[in-house]
Design goal:
Layout: H1 45-50, H2 52-56, E1 87-89, E2 95-101, H3 106-110, H4 113-116, H5 118-125, H6 128-133, E3 139-145, E4 154-165, E5 170-179, E6 189-196, E7 202-207, E8 215-222, E9 228-231, E10 234-238, E11 240-242, E12 251-260, E13 274-286, E14 293-301, E15 305-309, E16 312-328, E17 337-350, E18 354-367, E19 382-394, E20 402-419, E21 424-443, E22 448-467, E23 475-494, E24 497-511, H7 520-529, H8 535-538, E25 543-557, E26 565-576, E27 584-596, E28 607-625, H9 630-641, H10 658-663, E29 677-691, E30 701-713, E31 716-733, E32 741-755, E33 760-774
Antiparallel strand pairs: 1-4, 2-3, 3-13, 4-12, 5-8, 5-13, 6-7, 6-12, 7-11, 8-9, 9-10, 14-16, 15-16, 16-17, 17-18, 18-19, 19-20, 20-21, 21-22, 22-23, 23-24, 24-25, 25-26, 26-27, 27-28, 28-29, 29-30, 30-31, 31-32, 32-33
């Protein structure tokens, strides 16, 4: 790989795992002029096991191409991917497994599962048309026992789940085992079936080898309290439970094995190796559940004066709404929980001057089913309590703002089991999430609008963990954070024109404790009283963690007679990872501008031409000294952002790429930045044409564009250039009818891109059609 862009391969600076195959120090050899695709497959299981630290934190795959002698050319990599069988062989010293399709093996074809159980196979994989359309190929897993086993030895294979799955809503597990007619179960060999949460929490069963018949064998486990096992429809025993948890609630592995209840020789009685086929491991027969959803709402109101003093009205037009909603299981969105929600809205006009609207709500979320019994006096499940109120005050005057206030409080108790290799730990998290907001907005009669909001959000969590090593005594760890957001918006509109601006600051602080959180009243009164106090007043040991500032400006002057104008300017600046001394932090600056100037050429209103430019500059700087402030970064970026059109991607020979490189060298060698610096410049020019003609051969719109991207990360540069063109056409039908919109759209797009760093050209053609039949 050419790491520094000097057109020389860097082969001595790689860190990671090096893969070698056979006697060669390379994976694939390609001769000059070879135009064929080569499929390369590498077994990396052993490499991962031997280099877990590398693969656990891997961020990239590096493919190194090295030429021999003076050879030169191009190597195209289509794609790189990871793959693996759903079933894992746990004991390769005894077992070998392989997926075999019905097209590879005549015996598999003759004894295909789909022929023995056609209805079940179609239920699991779809009908023949569906399978053909999706290129589904029927396979079985051949499992061979090729080594002798000592008494008590077990060799297994597993279907593992990355995240434990909940199977409590099913009634049965089924799998199928095929014993070829040419095979005999070796003497002293039995089969095992296990469903595991982990090694200590599991269900086990041993299937006598003598009970397996030639042909397909149906093995089923019913998910009831005794876990009965059936073989070919006949009861053969119950699974034995180890541990104290509900295994089906958190299944991490289903395991099938070969167990030697005495010395086992695969050749006795033979033939060797001993072979079986496994297929169609699945759960079936969903558990029937009855969930309810209820909703009730009532509104009462009075039109006119409800209360007055003499002729002066005090309360007018009051209205009251009350409601209740209950959602269980599937209606709520979680099978094991239910929700009860109560809410009310109250509104009225007071003293002939202002309207008041108040909304109150409370929701309780509690366990509904599958409540687990845990040992050691531990309680399962959890609950969520949501309480909120909102207040709006409107004086009904043009120059007086409308005021808003809200408070949301969520108290959650989450109790869960976390599995370890052989045991488990109990985890309880008490969470308090509260949000307090104040705001106002107004709309002046002459077109000026304004809004301002200020919100603070507190998150406090107390995490308690217990396990067998701690004798199930809960240890506690507390965390707390505060997020506060100021958001200001202005807009001014006249006729069909509009100008708007938005300024926002979003800050997050971390701390050790949130005071006065215990009850709704104490929390609300304290937080409301300290709303504009420094963060340290409402969060102990408050430390700034993230600060994000954003600025937005939009100008829209639509084309009416001669010329229109559109402008979008966005700036985002984020600071994070502040050091304890506040002398360093990471910064991320993103700036974007887009301008276009639509006009009618020669006053022809059927033709609208819109030339435009868009430009984007981002800067990602690590470990930036406090001596470089936010204004410094933005001003240094703006001078490159606001360069005139064609300053970048300049058509003059010799300037077309140089200016782009200069723009991404911001802070390249700054002595006040101690980490890596990355800059990206993206520029685009476009001309769109909109044609208002009904002729079928004239497009509805067409356009051309030129774009480029230049990026620097440290000392490494990459650059791309591209261009494209498009046209689309709308073919309307039944244009005289206002009741239906019937039309066909046709869209064609071509994009060309040149990557100078990889020396690859990319051409993309897109053709889209659509049929609209809208009422």
């Amino acid at each position: 790989e050419d790491l520094n862009g000097n057109r020389i391969f860097d082969t001595d600076s790689e860190d990671g795992v090096h893969i070698y195959t056979s006697a060669n120090d390379y994976i694939q050899e390609i001769t000059v002029g070879d135009g064929n695709w080569h499929y390369v497959s590498i077994n990396i299981l052993d490499i991962i096991n031997a280099n877990k630290s590398v693969f656990q934190y891997a961020t990239a795959i590096r493919l190194t191409v090295k030429s021999s002698g003076d050879a030169s050319g191009k190597v195209i990599i289509n794609k790189v991917w990871f793959s693996g069988a759903a079933i894992k062989n746990n004991d390769t010293d005894y077992l070998s497994i392989s997926d075999v399709s019905v097209y590879e093996d005549s015996d598999v074809n003759s004894n295909a599962f789909s022929k023995e159980y056609p209805g079940l196979y179609e239920e699991l994989h779809g009908d023949s048309r569906y399978r053909s359309r999706n290129e589904y190929v029927e396979k079985v897993m051949k499992v061979s026992l090729y080594n002798t086993m000592l008494s008590g030895t077990e060799a297994t294979l597993s279907r593992r789940f990355g995240v434990p799955v909940n199977l409590t809503s099913y009634k049965k597990f089924r799998m199928f085992l095929f014993l070829p007619s040419s095979q005999n179960v070796p003497t002293n060999l039995d089969f095992t079936l296990s469903i595991l949460s982990n090694l200590g929490e599991r269900l086990n069963f041993t299937i006598p080898g003598s009970s397996i018949q030639p042909g397909w064998n149906d093995i089923a486990v019913k998910f009831n309290s005794s876990y009965p096992v059936e073989l070919n429809g006949n009861y053969i025993g119950d699974m034995q439970k180890a541990g104290s948890l509900s295994v089906l609630k958190r299944v991490s592995e289903i395991r099938f094995g070969f167990l030697a209840n005495g010395p086992v020789d695969p050749a006795v009685p033979g033939p060797s190796p001993f072979e079986i086929w496994l297929d169609e491991w699945h759960v079936s027969e969903s558990e029937g559940l009855f969930d309810k959803a209820m909703f009730a709402e009532a509104t009462v109101g009075y039109s006119g004066e409800l209360l007055s003093i003499g002729s002066f009205p005090m309360v007018e037009d009051p209205a009251l709404l009350v409601g209740y909603e209950r959602l269980e299981g599937t209606f709520y969105g979680d099978l094991d929980f239910k929700s009860d929600k109560y809410y009310t809205d109250v509104g009225s006009h007071f003293f002939n001057y202002f309207d008041v609207q108040v909304s109150l709500s409370r929701e309780n979320i509690t366990p509904l089913r599958n409540i687990e019994e845990l040992p050691n006096n531990l309680t399962p499940g959890g609950s969520i309590d949501n309480i909120s109120h909102e207040l709006e005050l409107d004086f009904r005057m043009d120059y007086v703002p409308v005021f808003h206030h809200s408070f949301y409080r969520t108290v959650s108790v989450n109790k869960d089991i976390e599995l370890t290799d052989v045991d488990y730990r109990y985890k309880k998290v008490d969470g308090y999430n509260e949000s307090l907001g104040l705001g106002e907005h107004f709309d002046f009669p002459f077109g000026l609008s304004h809004s301002y909001s200020y919100t603070r959000n507190w998150l406090y969590e107390n995490t308690q963990v217990a396990d067998s090593d701690s004798s199930w005594d809960l240890s506690s760890q507390k965390s707390s954070s505060l997020n506060q957001v100021h958001d200001i918006f202005f807009s001014y509109s006249w006729l069909s024109n509009m100008v708007s601006a938005n300024v926002k600051r979003d800050e997050t602080f971390t701390g050790s404790y949130t005071p006065r959180y215990e009850t709704w009243f104490s929390s609300y009164t304290y937080k409301f009283g300290t709303m504009y106090s420094p963060p340290g007043m409402t969060l102990e040991d408050a430390i700034l963690s993230i600060r994000a500032d954003s600025l937005g400006l939009d100008v829209s002057l639509p084309l009416e007679n001669v010329l229109g104008f559109n402008l979008t300017l966005n700036t985002d600046f984020t600071q994070s990872n502040f050091q304890a001394s506040n002398d360093q932090r990471d910064t991320l600056a993103h700036n974007y501008i887009s301008m276009s100037f639509p006009f009618y050429p020669a006053g022809i209103t059927e033709i609208e031409i819109e030339p435009g430019v868009e430009r984007e500059i981002t800067g990602d700087y690590k470990k930036v000294s406090e001596t470089i402030g936010e204004a410094d970064v933005l001003l240094n970026t703006y001078k490159y952002l606001f360069m005139p059109p064609f300053y970048y991607i300049n058509p003059i020979r010799g300037l077309g790429r140089i200016k782009d490189y200069d723009a991404v060298d911001i802070y390249k060698n700054s002595s006040n930045i101690y980490g890596n610096t990355t800059n990206t410049l993206t520029t685009g020019y476009f001309v769109n044409t909109y044609l208002g003609y009904d002729n079928w051969y004239i497009p509805s719109s067409a356009g051309v564009s030129v774009s480029g991207e230049t990026k620097r990360s440290g000392e490494n540069y990459t650059q791309k250039r591209g261009g494209g063109a498009y046209f689309d056409k709308l073919f309307p039908f039944d244009v005289e009818s206002d009741f239906y919109d019937k039309s066909v759209t046709l869209f064609f797009n071509y994009q060309h891109e040149r990557d100078y760093s990889t020396k690859v050209l990319t051409n993309t053609f897109t053709l889209e059609t659509g049929l609209n039949i809208l009422k």
